[in-house]
Amino acid sequence: MDNFTLRDGTLHAEDVSLPAIADAVGTPVYVYSTATLERHVHVFRDAVAGLGKGEPLVAFAVKANPNKAVLATLARAGMGADVVSGGELYRALDAGMDPNKVVFSGVGKTADEMAQALNAGIGQFNIESEPELDMLSAVATRLGKVAQIAIRVNPDVIAGTHAKISTGGKENKFGIDYHAAPAAYAHAASLPGIRVRGVAVHIGSQLTDLLPLEAAFGRVGALIRDLRAAGHDITHADLGGGLGVPYDPARPLPPSPAEYGAMVARATAGWDARLMFEPGRLIVANAGVLVSRVIRVKQGATAPFVVVDAAMNDLLRPSLYDAYHDIRAVTPTGERAVTNIVGPVCETGDTFALGREMDVVAADDLVAFMTAGAYGATMASTYNSRALVPEVLVAGDRFAVVRERPPIEALAQADRLPPWL
Ligand code: LLP
User: Does ligand 1 lie within 6 Å of residue 317's CB atom?
Assistant: First the structure.
C-alpha cells in the first residue's frame, strides 16, 4: 500500500499533484511520501511486536535511502539505523538517530570508521571476519572502550533472489561460515576490547520466499544454543533485512510483513534473546516514485521508443539487475500500447522497459516510475555529466525539496587542471 493515487485523473503523492512538483522542481525528481514511510514503520513494528525478549529493535538499512529528511522521519517514528560506512553513520546521527540504536554492518570497516563508531557510542558492530575482530579490539583498547558485537554468520542458504543481491551462500563474501562461528566466538571472548552480545544474519535482498529465511534462522537458533552451552552471554539476535516488495503488479505478492512476523515467531520460539531487524527496501521502496518527463517519442522497429528525461544514472536498478519498475502516465488517458521506455544516456543498457504494455504517453507528458524509494536516488550518479537527481518529501498537502539538484557547473568546478596544462 502506498499514498500515490489518482485524483481527478492525475497521480498525486498524498494531497500534492505530481505535476505541481514537476513544475516547481523540474524533472527528473524523486518524490517520497511521509504517510507511506510512517505506515511502513508501523506495519513492520506491529508484525514483530512482542517477539523475543523486550521490544525488538528495528534498524533501518540506511543504504536503501540515506536522505536526511527520510532518516529524520524514520528516527522520529522510533527506528534505529543499520549502517555500512562512516558516511552512513554520519548521516544517521546527523538526522537524529539514537546511537544506541545503530548497528554497523559490512565486510570492510576501516580502523578510522571503527573509531568514529566507538566514539559515537553505537549499539552494536556486526563482525564479518576474525581479522576484523582483531582490528576492532585494538581500536577499542586504544580508545579505552569496549565494542559490543554480534558475529554475522554465513548460514549457507540459497536465498532465491538475484545473484547480485544474494549474500548468504558460502561462496559469498559475507559473514563467517556458521561451522567456523564457535571458534570465532571463542576468539572474540578472549579479546580485551570486545564484548560478545549476539548473533547476526542477513541472506539477501528482495526475498519473495520465506523458506530460505526460516532455514537461516534455524541455523542461528542452533548456534545460539551451542554458544550459550560454551559459556557465551548471547542476549541479542539480529535477523537482518531482505523482505521483498511488490514491483510488478502482474506478479504474485511477496509475503506480507505479518506473514514474515509469524514465521519469525515460529523460528525464534524459545530463543530468549532481544530480536533486531534491518529492513531497508520494505520501509522505503513504495514510499517513493521517480517522476520524469517524456522528451520525445521515436519510431522503433517493433514498438515506439519513449525517450524520458530520467536515465540509468538516476535509477540504476533496471540496467544493473534487470529490475522491473511499474511505469505509469501521471495523467493517464486510459489508452494502452506496447512501448519501449528509454533514457537519454548513450548506452543500450539505459532501458527501463522493452515491449511493455503501458499507458500511452506523448512528448511533454509526465511518467512515474513506481516503487523507486529504495536503492533509487542513493545509487544515482552523474554519468553522461547529468546533474544528480533532486528529492522531494511530501507530507499531506505540503512538499519540500529535501535534496537540491546541483547546478551542472558544480560538476565541472570540482575538476582541477594539473600545473602542466
Ligand atoms: N542488512 C544488511 C547487512 C544488508 O546488506 C542489507 C542490504 C540490508 C540489511 C537491507 O536489505 P533490504 O531489507 O533492503 O532488502 N541495490 C540492491 C539491493 C542491495 C541490498 C544490499 N544489502 C537493489 O537495488 O535491489
Answer: yes
**Alpha-carbon span 40 to 252, nearest angstrom:** 20
What pLDDT does residue 166 have?
77
22: domain CATH number is 2.40.37.10
Q: Is the CB of 174 under 6 A from ligand 1?
A: no
Interface pTM, i.e. ipTM: 0.99
Grid coordinates representing 315? 535509477
**Are residues 234 and 293 both part of a single domain?**
no
What's the rounded mean pLDDT across residues 317-326? 97
Active site annotation includes 373: no
Q: Is residue 85 part of a domain?
A: yes
Query: Does the C-beta of 189 come closer than 6 Å to ligand 1?
Result: no
Q: Which domain holds residue 351?
A: 4-32+285-413
Q: Output the pLDDT for position 1.
A: 67
pTM: 0.97
* Ligand 1 centroid – CA 204 distance (Å): 7
Whether the bond between 28 and the residue before it is cis, its omega within 30 degrees of 0, is yes
